[in-house]
Amino acid sequence: MPKRLASKLPRDHRLLRLETLLRLRWYTVIAQAALVLLAHFGLGLQLPLGSIALVLGLAVALNLALGVKTPASYRIEESAAFVLLGADILQLAALLYFTGGIHNPFSIFFLAPVLFSATALPPQRTIVLGLLTMAASTFILPFNEPLHWFGGEDLVLPNYFALWLWIALQACILFVGLYAWRIAEEARQLVQALAITELVLEREQHISDLDGLAAAAAHELGTPLATIALVTGELLRGKLEDESLRADLLLIKEQSARCRQILAQIPTLGEPNVAPFRTVTVSSLVAEIAQRYKDRGAPIRITSHGSEPEPRCLRNPGLLYGIGNIIQNATEFAASAVDTRIHWTDREIRIEISDDGPGIPAFVLDRLGEPYVTSRPISAPEVETGENTGRSGGMGLGLFIAKVLLERSGATLEARNDRNGTGGATICLFWPRHLFEDVARKDDQDNWAKAKEKPG
Question: What phi, psi does 360 have (nearest 5°)?
Answer without folding.
Answer: -95, 125
